[in-house]
Amino acid sequence: MLPRLPVLTRCLSLAALCAAGPVAALEFPLPPPGEDIVGQVQVIKAKYEDTFADLGTANDLGYLEMVAANPGVDPWLPGAGTEVILPTRFILPPGPREGIVINLAEYRLYYFPKGQSVVYTFPLGIGREGWGSPIAHTSITAKTPNPTWTPPASIRAEHAADGDPLPGVVPAGPDNPLGPFKFTLGTPGYLIHGSNKKFGIGMRTSHGCFRMLNNNVLQMAGMVPVGTSVRIINEPYKFGISAGKVYLEAHTPLDDKGNPSVVDKHTAVINALLKREDLANNLRMNWDVVRDVVAAEDGLPVEIALPTTAPATSLSSTPFEMPQ
Question: What sign for the dihedral angle of Cα 22, 27, 30, 36?
Fold first, then answer.
């Protein structure tokens, strides 16, 4: 039976799979058909001056996903020698592996370039309270280097009320909140763009647009053509298969406005499982582990079941059914 361990202990038990240091970029080969997981969790030792914001920037990770993966660790002063988990293992988002897929609940973008067996993934800042990011299926309609910014009347009014009036047009440059590049989406009023503030990537900080680290958006600029599909989803619970084993990755649910949501989490996780027809009717589920994963919301893929066709050696559990 898969043991029920504290989340941090479970994470550190992955040390045999962890790399010795950070990756240069989150680019992974696509797994073969029937497989859903890319990357490996890493564990590093913090230096005295490290913060989660800096470690996230260096490793293409967002602030909140660093916090979730490291409960009990001070994000502003982890302390020299503290073991810090880098959550660089991902279950790929559900649905077609094509174009751009943004999962709001992860604060993360996945890009599947056409004709290539790779996937790129980057952290995102998304819409904050009152300025939720949309759930939509759209496309890239324009690419603009060194963009100017014409703040809409609503944002100008907000800044004016805070005693920080904005000009009618903000020119390109270091003070431009769109950073060095923007992608215009077919959904009116929304962009994917860089930022003049590195803090806020991987958080709810924008007016609904999708913020990226500047080096990430510039890398995307060279890869993503106009017309690329953009699918925006909100899936806090992702199921995936790796080496014949079934995994669950859980994030804090967000409502349609991008705010943390109070939901029946067990119902939500079962609804997510039912979307995977290849899994829902062919599992032996360990519900104790599922409950632990859902409670932890640490964003780390955890083994929760085996297909019923597999030998009954790893888990003792019951066939798939709604838990009472």
Answer: positive
The active-site residue, picked from 18, 193, 207, 251, is: 193
Distance CA 130, CA 139 (A): 24
Q: What is the mean pLDDT of each run of 10 residues along the chain (324 residues)?
A: 38 38 70 94 94 92 94 94 97 96 95 96 76 81 90 66 66 82 91 83 71 93 96 94 92 75 79 80 79 94 74 38 40
Distances (CA, A) of 187 to 123, 131, 137, 223, 315: 21, 15, 8, 21, 45
Token output for 129 = 């309270």
Q: Is 193 a catalytic residue?
A: yes
* Catalytic-labelled residue, pool 11, 18, 207, 209: 209
Active-site residue, 11 included: no
Q: How many CA atoms lie within 13 A of 34 on its CB side?
A: 4
Beta carbons of 52 and 78 less than 8 angstroms apart: yes
Phi, psi (deg, nearest 5) at residue 116: -125, 145
pLDDT at 273: 85
